[in-house]
């Protein structure tokens, strides 16, 4: 296998993690969403929200899906996928969420997100996530 094929395969695998997260959000499935995060992942959201660990991410998303984000869908469009070595990646994306009935992402919910992923024996996982208003 050539280096280019290897990079293409890893790029595709990283993007598949993001697609799986979007699908889990669309299903409002906090367990499936959190399963893509590392055990000790960190999440920093706009407004200063900080979460440490997969279980904390799961609890937060379960509450959000049961409450204000019920029926919402995620928008996440990678703008840059940078492979770092063989087992890490940094992704910058345009992100946000749509509430039920919305077709266009409102400007006040547009975010730029940075994802740091690593590959272990069980595949690619989100190690860190941060977003801020775009």
UniProtKB/TrEMBL annotation:
DUF4440 domain location: 14-126
Protein name: Uncharacterized protein (TIGR02246 family)
InterPro entries: DUF4440, NTF2-like_dom_sf, Steroid_delta5-4_isomerase
Natural source organism: Micromonospora kangleipakensis
NCBIfam families: SgcJ/EcaC family oxidoreductase
SUPFAM superfamilies the record matches: NTF2-like
Gene3D superfamilies for the chain: 3.10.450.50
Cross-referenced Pfam families: DUF4440
Domain of life: Bacteria
């Amino acid at each position: 296998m050539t280096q280019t094929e290897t990079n293409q395969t890893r790029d595709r695998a990283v993007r598949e993690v993001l697609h799986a997260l979007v699908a889990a959000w669309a299903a409002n499935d906090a367990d499936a969403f959190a399963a893509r995060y590392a055990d000790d992942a960190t999440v920093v959201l706009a407004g200063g929200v900080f979460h440490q660990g997969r279980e904390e991410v799961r609890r937060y998303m379960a509450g959000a899906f049961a409450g204000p984000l019920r029926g919402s869908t995620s928008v996440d469009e990678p703008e840059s996928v940078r492979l770092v070595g063989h087992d890490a990646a940094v992704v910058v994306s345009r992100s946000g969420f749509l509430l039920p009935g919305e077709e266009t992402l409102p400007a006040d919910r547009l975010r730029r997100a940075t994802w740091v992923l690593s590959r272990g024996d069980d595949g690619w996982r989100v190690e860190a996530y941060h977003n801020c208003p775009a």
